[in-house]
Amino acid sequence: MNTKASSLSPTLVFLIFFHLSLVSCRNIISHGGGNGFTLDLIHRDSPLSPFYNPSNTPSDRLRNAFHRSFSRASFFRKYSFCTNNTIQSDTFPIPGEYLMKISIGTPPIEILAIADTGSDLTWTQCKPCINCFHQSAPLFDSNKSSTYKTLGCNTEECTSLGTSSCVGGNICEYQMSYGDQSHTIGDLAFEKFTFPSTSGNNVDIPNVVFGCGHDNGGTFNSYTSGIIGLGGGKVSIINQLDNEINGKFSYCLIPLESSISNASSHINFGNSAIMSDPNVVSTPLIKKESSTFYYLNLEGVSVENKTLIFKSSKISSASAVGDGDGKGNIIIDSGTTLTLLPNDFYTKLESMLVDSIKATKKDDPSGTFGLCYESENGIIDAPKIVAHFTNADFELLPSSTFAQVEEGLVCLTIVPAEDIAIFGNLAQGNFLIGYDLVANKVSFLPTDCTKY
């Protein structure tokens, strides 16, 4: 028998920020001999996405991504030193990069939600709704699900949120608000999640903790109904499915020029995420107080045969990213488009690039990008750039590092930031990138993601 909240507290006791990434599950593949499945990821600018705007030019899309990247970075910066008892993530009004379809409940009801490696709690809009933003699909009705069950106030999942209260006697109510004054309030509950397949093979996961939102409002888009959290915190999907996927997931993101086609990126879970190729290189995944985010240690960046040691006065003295030992100085994030580096380091890196590039420099008319060159065919003769992570060298692809922002103009997609470092998804394009939260490592393998 389902237990429902009789009232909802109007008090929002904690600020939490979500990045809106877009994912679509077109086909899940079950692999024999173990737990593993694969989903398609549809870029927000792809014709397969409900957010696709055919009137936007490639220049429009890249410049919009520039502004989304800085919005995301501002919230990473602010909440990178939260305690283990809080949920942190980040948001801005415009949905981000990738969308996901899953089904919840018994019988299963399909929802379209926003997947994010920078968020933990998964939630969707639910009936009865005191205040909900408009969504195209019907609201989830927990009364019609035989597998729905609310969590008590003293459960570990409830107390770990740090943003909950007790209502209706013994029902855990989560309360969250966002930087743009959006909010969600509702019941924390168990429910069965189903990852559907067009081939008919479903992956059913029982007793997943999620938020059933009864009071939600702000700048959310009608195409989606909530968030799917893929961060590193306790209530993220990754950690909740630990018995099924053993802390492993990976993704292969198609490059920028392929995102406006019908090609799809992919995300893999469990055995499907195991990377056994001899060319795989791995770097430690650094644990932080802000357990939601994934931190790596960047030791330096090479341009041709010259190496610039990664040091930043901002990060070493008062950064939201670095610890006192200097480890874990960069966030790897699939939801930030550009790669952001601290101002002082970026200035030195840009100088090295200018010395190595023979093309004609040209100012970006919009002032968005700092280092740009004239180009008749959308490419330049870019030097070899390698990011040196601890124990792993990552050679950046020229097509991802210098992108055509408009006809005749190619610009660097690495940009300066105030006091944070983020390794963005453009740089990750055409690499299979695997996360192992048990072994605490992130692995890289050059891959043609359009054929993966």
UniProtKB/TrEMBL annotation:
Residues 1-25 form the signal peptide. GO terms for biological process: proteolysis. Residues 98-445 form the Peptidase A1 domain. Transmembrane segments: none annotated. It comes from the Eukaryota. GO terms for cellular component: extracellular region. The keyword Isomerase does not apply. One of its GO terms (molecular function) is aspartic-type endopeptidase activity. It is found in: Secreted. SUPFAM superfamilies: Acid proteases. Its main location: secreted. Keywords: Aspartyl protease, Glycoprotein, Hydrolase, Protease, Secreted, Signal. Belongs to the peptidase A1 family. This is Peptidase A1 domain-containing protein.
